[in-house]
């Protein structure tokens, strides 16, 4: 995989200049700049947050070990460095998000689970029962999301997978959308056309992890996404906007793989699950651009959430459970107005640089079409659980795109933002998935690399007797 460092989208301060030769003069200049920089940084840190920011500063410079610093400096095309991302993710974002996604409001996702591929027939390549979505019992469902109960047979209540937390409630209630607009998202394929086919799924019962879904069916999907809808740069002609689309998809792909590696079925016979660091290394860590794209996608979605802070603070988090809803609202507020995040990463991604020039609006329509195609391809994923998470995360990305780049394709940023409840649920759950992936890569990436390099070195030389 090639890296392309030549064309920066964001043009963030401090993003360039790595790896230059240092002369004695430049070294003196550098020392002086470093001292002045440190003093300024200290003043800034004290002014912004006397309690938390200095901790970040120490964290960014604490480890000098060369391997651990492989991902250091600015995340390409973003306005935040790796060290800061790792710190705020671990200390601030991850704990808040883990709590938030457990709340009744954020744990139920409305989705059409039928495999309804508009491009080719489903070839059912999923072998494990873990591919299927586990349904949840009726009594777990928030009252505000419910329709009057329809008659159910006892069998309906039994989970497909034999687990007690069975039965997806496939009923819908229009009241569930009180206070939320049903608005079109030009970035996503409209999944709402036939509401009778929609169902609510408890995401907590259906973790994204290894399912055994692999082979030609999966490659056809990834191929269709990359080749037809978001070609890989570094074809230099590719503009910044297309590069962003590629990086978002590649970052999401990395995150899916990281979840497979972190929650892997180690032994099918004993049903034991655990980390698979070989998968982490072979499919993600070995390709630095895949790691970089994961961090990029994380910062892009974080930027969308902080940009929509006012909207997300005022949104109605209503499931009928006032205590839980109050908690969800207060966690959402902590997330979007967090002083540590705002001080450390005030603008994780600078969206204002995109869609410039005469061709901007035309290009936006073109890329919207490509993204809508990617969203439609999710109906072709031949494994139910993968389809669930694929749809959720692509909707989350589409929501981030809508927040950052208008909602009508005409770049009309003065339009007031309107989001659907399902979009907000997808956005927060996507950020949580990315946050888990960033944390796992940060904590286990180096171990995976050392382990795999050790394995390679330990392989006996065929030529030695
Ligand atoms: C939407 C979707 C959701 C899925 N969810 C799950 C799931 O929850 N659990 C599960 O077990 N499986 C899931 N899968 C399948 C999984 O993504 C892999 O396809 C499968 O594990 C086979 O992996 P692979 O090693 O053959 O390579 P794949 O991951 O299938 O990759 C195919 C090719 O894409 C390229 N590539 C790989 N990673 C990147 C990247 N980050 N950026 C750019 N290019 C890349 C490489 O050239 C690679 O050969 C999902 C698939 C899809 C399409």
Automatic annotation (TrEMBL):
Disulfide bonds: 126-131, 383-386
Localization per Swiss-Prot or TrEMBL: Endoplasmic reticulum membrane
Keyword annotations from UniProtKB, A to Z: Disulfide bond, Electron transport, Endoplasmic reticulum, FAD, Flavoprotein, Glycoprotein, Membrane, Oxidoreductase, Redox-active center, Signal, Transmembrane, Transmembrane helix, Transport
Domain of life of the source: Eukaryota
Main localisation: endoplasmic reticulum
One record GO biological process: protein folding in endoplasmic reticulum
Chain segments carrying region Disordered: 1-26
Cofactors named for this entry: FAD
InterPro entries: Ero1, ERO1-like_sf
UniProt key word Signal: yes
Translocase as UniProt keyword: no
SUPFAM superfamilies hit by this protein: ERO1-like
Cellular component annotations (GO), alphabetically ordered: endoplasmic reticulum membrane
A Pfam family reported for this protein in Swiss-Prot or TrEMBL: ERO1
Catalytic residues (positions): 383 (nucleophile), 386
Binding site for FAD: 209, 211, 222, 250, 253, 283
A single GO molecular function term of this UniProt record: FAD binding
Bilayer topology annotation: Peripheral membrane protein
Membrane-spanning parts: 30-48
Family listed: Belongs to the EROs family.
Description of how the protein assembles with itself and partners: May function both as a monomer and a homodimer.
Name the record gives this protein: Endoplasmic reticulum oxidoreductin-1-like isoform X1
